[in-house]
Structure formats: C-alpha cells, structure tokens
Amino acid sequence: MSDQIWQVQRGEGPLVATAVHDGHLMRDDVLSHVKLDDLGRLREEDPFTGHWTKCAPTRVVGLRSRFEVDLNRPRDKAVYRTPEDAWGLTVWNDNPADEMFAKSLDEYDAFYAAMQEMLSGIVAEQGHFILYDLHTYNHRRAGPAGAVADPLENPQVNIGTGTMDRRRWGHVVDALIEGLREFDFPGGKLDVRENVKFRGGNWPRWIHETFPTTGVAIAIEFKKFFMDEWTGQPDPAAVDAISDALQYSVPFVMDAFNHPRLV
After folding, report:
1. pLDDT in tens, 87-100
2. Residue 218 Cα distances to 65, 83, 188, 232, angstroms
3. Which of 42, 36, 28 shows the shortest CA–CA distance to 90?
4. Please, what is the Cα angle at 35 between 33 and 38, to 5 degrees?
5. DSSP state, residue 66
6. Per-residue pLDDT tens over the stretch 137-160
7. Taking every pair of C-alpha atoms in the chain, what is the biggest distance, in angstroms?
C-alpha cells in the first residue's frame, strides 16, 4: 500500500471539492487489528464521493479508511477506540497500542497542515474559495431486509451549514440548493434540504474558523439511494447522475459566490 494519505489535483479558480471519507485503504499495522470485514467498513465509508469531486478544478480525495483516521472529526475523536465512537460497531479484535493511534493522529495533523497551506494559497491567488465537502449517509440501518428510514427526516441530499456564517454565505447555499433541485434527475427532481439530517462535521468547522471571511465549506451529504449500502453495489446510472447534478450546480453557486453580500 502507498504511504499516501490523500491525493490532490490542483486546478484554477476558487472552487474546491473534497471527499475525505472516500478512502478504504488501511496501514498494515492497523488492518492487523481490525475486526470488521471489508463490507462492514465500506458501509460507513463514503464510496463514489471521490469520483464526484470532478465537479471542481481543485480536488482532494482521502485514500485511507475513516476507521484508520477520521478527517471529519475533531482531533480527540479522530480515531475510533470504542464502539461508541463507531455507531456501536466493534472495530478492533484486541486492544491496539497507543502508538498505533498516535501514528494515525500524525496523519490527521499532516492533512490539516497541508490543507491550510493549499487553501491559503488559493486565497492568495483568488481572494477567497468555496468548498464542496462531499459525503454519503446510510438510510437502511434496520438491516438488509429492514425498512428504509423515513424520507421526511432523510432527504436525498442534506446540505449541512451548521458552522458557517449564513449572513455572509447564505445566498451561496441557496444557489446550490436551487441548482441541485432544478437538475433533471432521473426518476424525479432531487429532494434537497438544509440541516435536516446533518449540520456538517469538523472539516467545514475548521475551514470556517481558519478562513472566517475568505472561505466557505458546504457539507453535501447524499443518502445512499444510489447504491445498496449492505452489499456495496452501486446503480451506475444514479452515481453518474449525481456527478452531473453537482456539475450542473456549479454555475449557480459561482454566480452567487462572485456577488458577495455586504455583512
């Protein structure tokens, strides 16, 4: 396995897309302690989000499983030690040494340091940046044959804005929601709502604290209606349609972003 923790494709302009939970790989020393099988881990990861980052010129894709290090949690919660940290799942088949977790936290620190450098560079070039923080979420936790979660509380697309200054950036969020809702999605328009299921994690929170007036991150969570979350099998047409919907939203978002509100 490569030592690479994430990969970056740097492009022109202020738009960035990230997929910090796309990764499935693990260091050998971590994998040797893992009790969960591949499908058990995949179910809580965010497959296909890396593919969707192609909507932006600058792309950042996590390569390691969130079960090794979770780049979207605060540092003190970025490694899962107990079932309470991991949706009740027993992650480890024994008690790994603290040194293993410390190495994972070194990866966490390296990621945030690199992102601060990269995003600061974009601000220096462009004056500001906007970031699509791409994720997925489960809606069939009752089991493979169980009922799906109530659609009223589980939109197809959850827009998380819990840590942003909405007075400054709300018109950009509204433009994203408009673009996604307007897209001619196969089977019917997308159900896109704000802060219903999630409000965004540590990654956008850190961006808003580090770049309070020059950067905005919008957490975009797609319900796993585009795949079977228990088998991992995707509907390729739906995966591609989500990619197209994100691309369709970009002109809406950039038009709003380039016309800032006075606050």
Report:
1. 999 999 999 999 99
2. 22, 29, 24, 26
3. 36
4. 105
5. T
6. 999 998 898 899 999 999 999 999
7. 55
